[in-house]
């Protein structure tokens, strides 16, 4: 299934137009993003993402923002309401929405943000990052999760992940920097033959200028990222705030407060510093691949 980048682009354009209008109103009201967030009982990150056109602006949120900014002009309010409805309608045309209820809301939100991000930094404790997984590996992970029961559901999820991987190619490819625990190379996902093909794929992907892979070996001992995987998404807008998605025992969780995001940036910097260099990491992957061949 194609990525439907045209619909996504139109959605982004309309969202940014609305965001710029809301930014102008906030600044006219002499409110900082922090003050606006406090007035709306939300995070500074949410205000930033709205103003950068990266998220859907629900009409109740729009009404609350216009009230907080003292925007009482009826014609202006009506125009922005129409613009928000158009942007939301276009955003619903994103290719990920064609998979309906089989995708959790958090995952759909992640794909939407991933489509607009220009960098992803991720630490993975046991699994190859989704953007680097081969179909057989994806299928094995999907079956093991037991979240999808029928063969059709499983194949749809495989296709979703493969379509996401289109962000690594094209005119403006996503820059992916992945730090992998050595456990990722040892976990027998799908069996030896699947792992052999997956390791070969990692080596091939590492040759791309926009993909950096590092391995954090067991020999480095305890480290700050041992608690689990996380993803830090970065966006091209100069004033945009990074967003973090982290896994917890009860599901995935978004983090967007500056202090929280800064903490994960520090964690990733520590992980990549502790990890082997990209060149050394490829040697480890090749060695593991040779073990599969013998």
From TrEMBL:
Gene3D superfamilies: lambda repressor-like DNA-binding domains. SMART domains: HTH_XRE. This is Helix-turn-helix transcriptional regulator. SUPFAM superfamilies: lambda repressor-like DNA-binding domains. Residues 22-76 form the HTH cro/C1-type domain. It comes from the Bacteria. Pfam families: DUF5753 (PF19054), HTH_31 (PF13560).
């Amino acid at each position: 299934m194609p990525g439907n980048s045209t619909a996504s682009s139109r959605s982004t354009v309309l969202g940014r137009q609305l965001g710029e209008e809301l930014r102008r109103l906030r600044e006219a009201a002499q409110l900082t993003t922090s003050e606006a967030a406090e007035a709306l009982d939300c995070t500074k990150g949410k205000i930033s993402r709205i103003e950068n056109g990266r998220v859907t602006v629900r009409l109740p949120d729009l009404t609350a923002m216009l009230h907080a900014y003292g925007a009482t002009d009826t014609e202006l309010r009506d125009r922005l309401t129409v613009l928000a409805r158009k942007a939301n309608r276009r955003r619903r045309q994103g290719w990920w929405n064609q998979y309906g209820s089989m995708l959790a809301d958090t995952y759909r939100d992640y794909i939407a943000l991933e489509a607009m991000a220009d960098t992803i930094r991720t630490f993975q404790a046991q699994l190859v990052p989704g953007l680097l997984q081969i179909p057989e590996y994806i299928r094995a992970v999907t079956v093991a999760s037991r979240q999808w029961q029928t063969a059709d559901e499983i194949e749809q999820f495989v296709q979703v992940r493969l379509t996401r991987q289109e962000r690594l190619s094209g005119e403006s490819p996503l820059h992916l920097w992945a730090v992998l625990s050595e456990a990722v190379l040892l976990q027998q996902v799908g069996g030896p033959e699947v792992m052999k093909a997956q390791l070969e794929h990692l080596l091939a992907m590492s040759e791309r200028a926009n993909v950096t892979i590092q391995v954090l070996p067991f020999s480095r001992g305890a480290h700050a990222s041992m608690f689990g995987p996380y993803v830090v998404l970065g966006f091209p807008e100069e004033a945009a705030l990074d967003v973090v998605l982290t896994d917890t025992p009860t599901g995935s969780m978004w983090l967007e407060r500056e202090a929280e995001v800064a903490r994960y940036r520090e964690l990733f910097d520590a992980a990549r510093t502790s990890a082997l260099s990209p060149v050394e990491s490829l040697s480890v992957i090749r060695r593991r691949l040779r073990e599969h061949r013998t």
